[in-house]
Design a protein that fits this description.
Strand order of the largest sheet: 1-4-2-3
Shape: elongated
Radius of gyration: 36 Å
Helix content: 40-55%
Number of strands: 10
Distance between the termini: 33 Å
Largest sheet: 4 strands, antiparallel
Amino acid sequence: MKLKDLHPPPPLRVDLSWRELYEEAAFAQRELVGDSALRSAAKERALSLGIGQGTLEDLDSNRALRPVAFALQGYWRGHDVPAEDPATLRFVDELEPQPWKNHAWRSELEPDFDNVSALYSGWQMLYVDDVLDGTGADISLKTLVLPRSERESGLEQLRAFAERQNAAWRALDEAWRPTIKLLVALQNSYWPEISGRTAVVPDRDTSQGYLRAGPDRRSIEPDVLLERLGTNQEEMLATYQFLVERGLDRDPRDGLTLLRRARPRAFHLRWRGLPRRAQDAFDAAETIRRFLVELTGEQPERVPLWPLDGRQPERASLYHRGPGAPWTPEEIKEQLLAAELYPHGVHLIGEGESEQIVVERLVEATLGPGALTDLAFYDLGGSGSATQVEPLSQAFAGYAVRCLVIVDSEGQMADYLRVAIEAGQLEGADVLLFPDSLEAANAGSAELIDLARELGRRMPDGQDPVEFELTSEELDEHHADRLSRSARKNPPGKADTLLSLVHRRTEGRLNIDKLDFVESLAEMLVKELGAVDSDGLNELKVRRPIVGFVLDRLVEALNRPRPAGVSI
């Protein structure tokens, strides 16, 4: 036999009665609703309150779920505040449960028909699931099929537990009433901002237009309202924490808890079942949070005991920013990434095809060819486009997972990028600036020469291999000479110097295409990356800056789970 574990809110003192709250127009922004509307709201939350008033009357008589009041002449909202004369209402905190026929009224249109107008607060949906759960217990089939004497003996042993559940169930409404009254006292101030809806009534002074229903939210200061309620900050904080945890307990464990909070408010009304119940609790918690922030000027503290239930990141975010606070586009992007639902990948800004070739080969070798679909490349078309880098990166960063820049220190590029980084327009870790060129920054002179020699040996079919003699010293001296004679705005890279020198040394027989040379460099880097162990990886990343940059800034951002094989 499994009994239901009912969880009422922590102790909370609220001195105001339902009548006092009603007379002060506390329901103006979230009006009382009839039993039919309550049943419909329950249905949206995958809860059933039966057909007609029978189930609700039974719950009232057992004190598990009581209305706020009964209207003795019908209830018509939207015309005045309060909606009806308080003298025509019977509030349940002033009377004991009794047959609902005692609250019946008849209209002139149907003089022979008894109407019963039971009125509820929308906040009471917070505990309807406990109300329904508490009406029974789960008994296993194994227990039911036992011989009669054994079955009765076993059930008798559980009687004390069942009686405790029954007592808790019959005290639910009373246990929740202070929390519901607190939320009603706060709803005029905060519910319009949370729900995105403001109730209005006709302007009776001018007979033209409409006015916000109820008193202005600033008409009572937070400390004055706290004193009128008769509660204190500690009790309200405990209630806030209870509601946050209640929402988390009801929200599905599908990794979308924070994304649901980020969706526009209009979508919340479309949810059904547990997500809608969770949102009820988060809305209530947000209402109290906003009051506490105004009261203290600080965000309320998180629950002191941090449950290790696998929902720590979600819990931390809810307490840090508030369970119903508005979301910025950047926060929504972060949650889409965390839920692996963000459609965009990494955007890379480079000066030409060389950077694209090397980066794509390294990504493909690390994550597989499928990852290339999440990598977009923007070709600056040379070093003369330095002024485009910052505005492009800002535009791409608005939607891309990450925007990276790989450029040479040619022309004004280095100076411009350093100024942009210092000004905070670019993130320094997202910029890879080579002092000479991509090739020279990631391979020594001897290695570059060896790559050129290998290309000479791999001549196309029908052509003899081409050999040449060239030392590192000769390459470095020739490159330094070219730099001294070149214009500062467009200095040659060492790879260009090498290919020009090889062409001259071989009398034009070996004319290496620049992109073929870059492909060879990329092949070398991929082989090194595949052969290195974990101990040598850091050394490789220092020696080959492009490898470290791709692994730390690009692969890390692209590394999402991908389909592999068949799962069952």
